[in-house]
Amino acid sequence: MRIQTTPNNSNPQKKITLFGDSIPKGLYLEGNKIMRIKRCAVNTVEETLQIKIDSRSAFGQTLGKCCKKEMFSDFFKTADPSADILAVSLGGNDCDYDWAEVAKDPFGYHLPKTPLPLFEELLEHLIETAARTGVATVFTSLPPIDSERYFRNVICAHADGEEVMKFFCGDVTNIARHQESYNAAVMKSALSAGAAFIDFRTEFLMKPDFLDYLSEDGIHPNQKGHDLIADCVIRYADARIQALQQLA
Fold first, then answer.
1. pTM for the predicted model, two decimal places
2. Which domain does 113 fall in, by range?
3. What is the pLDDT of residue 244?
4. Domain count, the chain
């Protein structure tokens, strides 16, 4: 994919601090090994828009962990509302389960790493804090996932797949629907509060061959996927820049 855009030099002092998981970090799973994308979306966006991105993304990161470790609180303590932008790209790990524990008792009661009501509560608190401090905040969607690949290549590598399938009531697509509810929570929370929301999920889903944009683990975008994300973010940023210039 060739990204067509004009580099932005209109506000070089702006700095984006990104809290994310393995996707903005450019990581994916191949077998039991953590691999790195050759050129992740964050690098492309940073270079194309000529803006500094302080990526505080990590493999396995969750919104719950960030809040528990007071990572957002530490950011807001030193953030400059006139220069800093907070970007949040989380949720994919929050909705994940301990599959080994699920396999031990597939008919038992299990909670994801960050239960959805708590996830929504943490999002609301984060948005309120950002608004109170005056820091502009941008949320991103979650990319869609392939339930079959994730089940076959990730879950079954760590747990008894037959037992986990009982937890799904025999329907593996429960994985994608569960993840979709977290994407909806991010979108609703951001838009209801007037925060920016970049929806690249729809761009994936509109591709008839969107599975070709995911790695073999079924949850992480491959190089094509990262190029698609970068293109969406850059087009969104260009549109916002043009809108501001028209108002000036």
1. 0.91
2. 15-247
3. 55
4. 1
